[in-house]
Amino acid sequence: RKEVEQDPGPFNVPEGATVAFNCTYSNSASQSFFWYRQDCRKEPKLLMSVYSSGNEDGRFTAQLNRASQYISLLIRDSKLSDSATYLCVVAGYSSASKIIFGSGTRLSIRP
Amino acid sequence: SAVISQKPSRDICQRGTSLTIQCQVDSQVTMMFWYRQQPGQSLTLIATANQGSEATYESGFVIDKFPISRPNLTFSTLTVSNMSPEDSSIYLCSVDGTGGPYEQYFGPGTRLTVT
């Protein structure tokens, strides 16, 4: 089993729709969780951290479910500019070397 | 967040040769990281570069193949040695963000093609 697993997609949704992705992780000792966004042929960029209590940033909501070992990202009122690959990142061992990137979920927003 | 630049942005190299990738940060940082992203894949950490000490390599990566220098707090290089087509990849450097050691900010990457 991979340490971090994501549905690769692609998710193809119309503009204005709500879309959600999940990401599962295998190590229950993981402490820190993030969502990154990667545009085609660009570097990944931090989208948001995922806190135990969940967090919201505008149209984006991230949640953590420790019992089931997954994190989620919800995008409301999707825009064309949201089209990208969304990478789930899990970390929290004793050193930064234990940052694990998921393989990403591709999202395509159509007009 | 720090501004990170990489050189070269892309290169096409012949097998058996070596390429050194430079990473420059606009502020002093303790730790710099080198990642590889193979076509269609996610990122894999190659090593962590600390100023004044040997780089720490992840499983599957060795110093002879990927020597790293970290001469000061704003600069690092990664060399891909004795290249083969399997080394064709995007190589990215990153630094920690202000939010903690796991928030990573990446350079634009170096796209390497080995023929």
Structure description:
The complex is a heterodimer of chains A (111) and B (115). Helices cover 0% and strands 53% of the residues of chain A. Chain A is mostly beta strands and 111 residues long. In chain A, the strands form 2 sheets. In chain A, strands 2, 4, 5, 9, 10 and 11 form a 6-stranded mixed sheet that branches. In chain A, strands 1-3-8-7-6 form a 5-stranded antiparallel sheet, with no helix packed on it. Chain A contains no helices and 11 strands. The mean pLDDT of chain A is 91. Chain B is mainly β and 115 residues long. Chain B has strands at residues 4-7, 10-13, 19-25, 31-37, 43-50, 56-57, 68-72, 75-80, 89-97, 100-106, 110-114. In chain B, the strands form 2 sheets. In chain B, strands 2, 4, 5, 6, 9, 10 and 11 form a 7-stranded mixed sheet that branches. A 4-stranded antiparallel sheet of chain B has the order 1-3-8-7, with no helix packed on it. Chain B is globular, with a radius of gyration of 13 Å. Chain B starts with a strand and ends with a strand. The A-B interface holds A 32, 34, 42-46, 49, 87, 89, 91-92, 95-97, 99, 101-104 and B 31, 33, 41-45, 48, 56, 58, 92, 96-97, 99-109.
Low-confidence stretches of chain B: none
Morphology of chain A = globular
Number of H/I helices of chain B = 0
Fraction of residues in β-strands of chain A: over 45%
* Helical content band of chain A: under 10%
Alpha-carbon Rg of chain A, integer: 13 Å
Tell me the quaternary state: heterodimer
Q: Report the sheet with the most strands of chain B, covering strand number, pairing sense and barrel closure.
A: 7 strands, mixed
Mean pLDDT of chain A: 91
Pair with the most extensive interface? A-B, 20 and 24 residues
Distance between the termini of chain A: 37 Å
Number of strands of chain B: 11
Main sheet record of chain A: 6 strands, mixed
Order of helices and strands of chain B, N to C?
EEEEEEEEEEE
Number of contiguous helices of chain A: 0
For the termini of chain B, the CA-CA separation is 36 Å
Sequence of secondary-structure elements of chain A: EEEEEEEEEEE
Share of β-strand residues of chain B:
over 45%
Q: What gyration radius of chain B follows from the Cα positions, in whole Å?
A: 13 Å
Summed over residues and divided by their number, the pLDDT of chain B gives a mean of 93
Structural class of chain A: mainly beta
